[in-house]
Amino acid sequence: MNRIVFLLTVLVVVIIVCAGCSKPVIDTSVDDTGIEDIKVAVSILPQARFVEKIGGDKVKVQVMIPPGASPVTYEPTPTQLKNLSRADMYVRVKCLPFEKAWMGRIKSANDNMHIIDSSMGIKIINKDPHIWLSPVLVKKQVEHIYQGLAEIDPQNKDYYKNNKERYVSELEKLDREIKNVLSGISNKKFIVFHPCWGYFAREYGLKQIPVKTEGKKLTPRDITRVVDKARSSRVKVIIVSPQHDTKSSEVIAREIEGEIILANPLAKDYIENIRHFAGKLSKLNRS
């Protein structure tokens, strides 16, 4: 009897020691509350910022087009398409070339993925997808994002609503700042190599003069045409995206004694990016 008691005691001690030595298994797909993150996919970085602002710590965002890549030519990797099979929601932008080419494959990667069109209800002009460059239109986009998150995660609807309202207040403040800094500019026209600032220009009473190259390098004749147009319009500002070649713009700037503004339409830090762009545009366009 004593031998049996001894063996049972040893067995209990061994079990306790082994339990103390084992490491806990951590599930990295859940947060510290034990609730799994909502996985949201987007095409471009600005959309990622909007989702993060509304979703807060309850979302994990996958961006399809990486920094520096073109929404016209980028092709998703097999790993990106595979990761979409675990996404709960996709936030798209109407008329974005990347989505036109790949949306069918994106949808087929996950039949259960909730797809939100953030451009719904926004009038698209000349097939230009750059609606996120107008803070006023972004307010409509974040409303769609909020509705999408609330639909798939109704228990946190109030959380998303509060985040949305805070971000809308930030956007409204940005809108007021832009109107203020652009109020005294002398020339409301600017040259742009990639005509992506149309919604911004329309919102704030400006006019972009696009250099239509269809992705091709400018010929000497093209440059002469742009220079003549700039001189006749007394334009001194040239907007260039960092994704595009700046050599031709430097030639034009020298000819018209103008200035170049490097402006990234795909920057993730949305509010600071737009604020910086408006500030530089204002300084260069004052009499």
How would you summarize what this structure contains?
The protein is of the alpha/beta class. It is 48% helix and 12% strand. The chain folds into 2 domains: 38-178, Nitrogenase molybdenum iron protein domain (Rossmann fold, 3-Layer(aba) Sandwich); 184-284, 3-Layer(aba) Sandwich (Rossmann fold).
Mean pLDDT: 86
Helix residue percentage: 40-55%
Radius of gyration: 26 Å
Counting DSSP E segments of at least 2 residues, the number of strands comes to 8
How many domains would you count in the coordinates? Answer: 2
CATH superfamily of the largest domain: Nitrogenase molybdenum iron protein domain
* Spatial gap, N to C terminus: 104 Å
Q: What is the N-to-C order of secondary-structure elements (H for helix, E for strand)?
A: HEHEHEHEHHEHEHEHEH
Please state the structural category.
alpha/beta
Major sheet details: 4 strands, parallel
- Provide the CATH topology of the largest domain: Rossmann fold
CATH class of the largest domain: Alpha Beta
Strand order of the largest sheet: 2-1-3-4
Q: Tally the helices: what do you get?
A: 10
Percentage beta strand? 5-15%
As residue ranges, the low-confidence spans are 1-34
CATH A-level architecture of the largest domain: 3-Layer(aba) Sandwich
Characterization of the model:
The protein contains ten helices and eight strands. With 287 residues, it is of the alpha/beta class. A four-stranded parallel sheet has the order 2-1-3-4, with helices on one face. Strands 6-5-7-8 form a four-stranded parallel sheet, with helices on both faces. Helix 2 (45-55) packs across helix 5 (135-152), helix 5 runs antiparallel to helix 6 (157-181) and helix 8 (220-233) packs across helix 9. The longest helix is centred in the middle third of the chain and has 25 residues, at 157-181. The radius of gyration is 26 Å and the shape is globular.
